[in-house]
Write a structure and sequence with these properties.
Structural class: alpha/beta
Keywords: Oxidoreductase, Signal
Largest sheet: 8 strands, mixed
Distance between the termini: 31 Å
Strand content: 5-15%
Bound molecules: NADP nicotinamide-adenine-dinucleotide phosphate
Organism: Gigaspora margarita
InterPro entries: NAD(P)-bd_dom_sf, SDR_fam
CATH topology: Rossmann fold
Low-confidence stretches: none
Helix content: 40-55%
Signal peptide: 1-22
Number of strands: 8
Strand order of the largest sheet: 3-2-1-4-5-6-7-8
Order of helices and strands: EHEHEHEHEHEHHHHHEEH
Number of domains: 1
CATH architecture: 3-Layer(aba) Sandwich
Protein name: 37641_t:CDS:1
Number of helices: 11
Radius of gyration: 18 Å
Length: 302
C-alpha cells in the first residue's frame, strides 16, 4: 500500500477501526484528516498517530454527524483548504443505541450512520471527482441482514415504537450499502471507486450503544465474547483494502460489497435492490433540503 501525496478523510478516525485506518493511511504517507465529533477524543488520537508513524500530516476535522449544520461546516472547512481528496472513508457509526433524535429531528442511528455521511459525501463530491482516481468507502455491517422485509421503512424511521434498536441499526447499515449502489451509478464514467463493506466482528467501543440501552451488567459478557472478536488492526483491513489496494482499479471493483478480508460477495436481495436505493437517495436528499434549504446540493453534481 502506497499513498504518496494522497489526501484522506476518515470519519470516526479517533478510535476503533477508524483509528487504525487513519494510522495506516498516515504511515503510508497520506495526509489524513480525522473527522470526529470530539476534540478531546480526537486530538490524543492525532498525537498518537504522529508519534507511532513519525508522520506529521495528520489533522483533526470537527464533524458531528448528529448535526447537519456541523456536517456542512466540516465539509466547508475542508474545502476551504483547497486540497484534493483521494480517499473518503465513511467509517463513523453508532450501534443499537437507545432511541434518540439528532439535532435535526432524525432518528439518530439513521441520522448518524446514513444521513450525515450522505450529506458529507455529496458536499465533498466535486473535489473527490476532481481528484480522481479516488475512492469512497462506506463502512456497513453484516447486521444489514436484520432489516425488516421492506428494507427501510421510511415512514416509521422516527417512530420510537416501530423497531428494536438492533433493527434500527440494521436499517442504517442497509442504507450504507444502498447509498453505495446509487452513488456508484451516478459516478459512472468517472474514476471514483465507491464500495461498501462489512469489516468483521471486532473488539472496539461499538458496544457502547448496547450497554447504554441494557445496562453495564452486560460488560463482563461482552468482555468474554470479545475474546473471539477480531482485533481493530485486523478489523480495519477490509476498509484499508477498499481505500488503497491497486486491485480496486485493476479489477474495476465499483459498487461492490466486501467482507473480511477484502473479498467481494453478493449482498442479500435487499442489499442489491436498485429501486430501494433510488428511493433512499430521493428520501435523503429531500430530507436534507427540508432541513438546510433547497440549494444545499447545488454544487454536488458539478
Ligand atoms: N466493531 C464491529 O464489530 C463492527 C461490525 C460491523 C460494522 N462495524 C462498523 O464499523 C464502523 C466503526 O465502528 P467501530 O467498531 O470502530 O466503533 P467505535 O470504536 O465505537 O468507533 C466509532 C467511531 O464513530 C464515531 N462517531 C459516533 N458518533 C459520531 C458522530 N455523531 N459524529 C462523528 N463521529 C461519530 C465515534 O466517535 P467518539 O469516539 O467521539 O464516540 C468513533 O470515532 C461503524 O460504522 C460500525 O457500524 C463495526
Amino acid at each position: 500500500m502506497l499513498c504518496i501525496f494522497l489526501v484522506a478523510i476518515v470519519t470516526g478516525g479517533n478510535t476503533g477501526i477508524g483509528f487504525v485506518t487513519a494510522r495506516e493511511l498516515a504511515r503510508n504517507n497520506a495526509h489524513v484528516f480525522i473527522a470526529s465529533r470530539s476534540k478531546d477524543r480526537a486530538e490524543p488520537a492525532v498525537e498518537l498517530i504522529k508519534k507511532e508513524t513519525k508522520k506529521d500530516a495528520v489533522e483533526f476535522l470537527q464533524l458531528d454527524l448528529k448535526s447537519l449544520n456541523s456536517v456542512k461546516r466540516a465539509a466547508e472547512t475542508f474545502l476551504a483548504r483547497n486540497l484534493p481528496l483521494h480517499i473518503l472513508v465513511n467509517n463513523a457509526g453508532i450501534a443499537a443505541t437507545p432511541f434518540e433524535k439528532t439535532s435535526d429531528g432524525i432518528q439518530d442511528q439513521f441520522g448518524v450512520n446514513h444521513i450525515g455521511h450522505f450529506l458529507f459525501t455529496l458536499l465533498l463530491l466535486p473535489t473527490i471527482k476532481a481528484s480522481a482516481p479516488s475512492r469512497i468507502v462506506n463502512v456497513s455491517s453484516m447486521a444489514y441482514t436484520g432489516a425488516p422485509p421492506a428494507g427501510i421503512e421510511f415512514e416509521k424511521l422516527n417512530d420510537p415504537n416501530a423497531y428494536t434498536s438492533f433493527q434500527r441499526y440494521s436499517q442504517s447499515k442497509l442504507a450504507n450499502i444502498l447509498f453505495t449502489i446509487e452513488l456508484n451509478k451516478r459516478l459512472s464514467g468517472t474514476n471514483v471507486y465507491c464500495n461498501s463493506l462489512h469489516p468483521g466482528v471486532i473488539k472496539t467501543e461499538i458496544t457502547r450503544g448496547v450497554v447504554a440501552n441494557w445496562g453495564t451488567w452486560l460488560n463482563p459478557i461482552i468482555s468474554i465474547m470479545s475474546l473471539f472478536f477480531l482485533s481493530p488492526d485486523d478489523g480495519a483491513l477490509t476498509q484499508l483494502y477498499c481505500a488503497t489496494s491497486p486491485e480496486i482499479e485493476e479489477k474495476n471493483l465499483r459498487g461492490k460489497y466486501f467482507v473480511p478480508f477484502g473479498e467481494v460477495i453478493e449482498p442479500i436481495a435487499q442489499g442489491k435492490d436498485e429501486e430501494l436505493a433510488k428511493k433512499l437517495w430521493d428520501f435523503s436528499e429531500n430530507l436534507i433540503k427540508e432541513k438546510l434549504g433547497d440549494d444545499i446540493f447545488s454544487k454536488s453534481y458539478a
